[in-house]
């Protein structure tokens, strides 16, 4: 048992600990149940819950959120459309987002897998200064997909 109001922290019988907490007008809270012996603290329970929520909120705020932006191509995408989408990808990567680029094959266009792979490879080559390829082109159903991560600066 530990706490702010405890003179000699140590191993105490549960009844004695509950009585001591009751005398102080506080609660006996099990802080770490997996320790041997379990650690309890005499504190105000609502204050304890508030502090835990505050810690979790701070940890959540410190987490980095990974944003994934998608760019879709057809197997026979023209140069102008390619450059337009390339500029968007450059902006996404410089903002710190990952880019998922894929070629969507409709109907019989699945016959042009080679063209789709060439298109994605050209896309990766153009973005070499902005990001690095995470995953080689993979064909999943009617989609050939790649992932590009921004380069660390």
Descriptive account of the structure:
- The protein is built from four helices and seven strands.
- The chain has 153 residues and is α/β, with parallel strands linked by helices.
- It has two domains: 59 residues, Roll (Ubiquitin-like (UB roll)); 83 residues, Translation initiation factor 3 (IF-3), C-terminal domain (Translation Initiation Factor IF3, 2-Layer Sandwich).
- The protein is rod-shaped and about 80 Å long.
Topology:
Blueprint: E1 2-3, H1 14-24, E2 27-32, E3 39-43, H2 45-62, E4 68-73, H3 79-94, E5 98-104, H4 113-126, E6 131-140, E7 143-150
Parallel strand pairs: 1-3, 4-5
Antiparallel strand pairs: 2-3, 5-7, 6-7
DSSP summary, beta strand count: 7
Task: Please write the CATH class name of the largest domain.
Answer: Alpha Beta
Q: Mind summarizing the main beta sheet? A: 4 strands, mixed
Which fold name fills CATH's third level, the topology of the largest domain? Answer: Translation Initiation Factor IF3
Percentage of helical residues? 25-40%
């Amino acid at each position: 048992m530990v706490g702010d109001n405890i003179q000699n922290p140590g191993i105490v019988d549960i009844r004695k600990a509950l009585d001591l907490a009751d005398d102080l007008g506080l609660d006996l809270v099990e802080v770490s149940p997996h320790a041997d012996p379990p650690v309890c603290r005499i504190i105000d329970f609502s204050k304890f819950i508030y502090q835990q929520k505050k810690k979790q909120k701070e940890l959540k705020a410190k987490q980095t959120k990974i944003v994934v932006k998608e760019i879709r191509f057809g197997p026979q995408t023209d140069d102008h459309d390619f450059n337009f989408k390339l500029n968007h990808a450059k902006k996404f990567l410089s903002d710190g987002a990952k880019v998922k680029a894929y070629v969507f094959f409709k109907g019989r266009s699945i016959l042009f897998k080679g063209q789709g792979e060439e298109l994605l490879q050209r896309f990766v080559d153009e973005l070499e200064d902005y990001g690095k390829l995470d995953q080689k082109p993979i064909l999943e159903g009617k989609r050939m997909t790649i992932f590009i991560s921004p380069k660390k600066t």
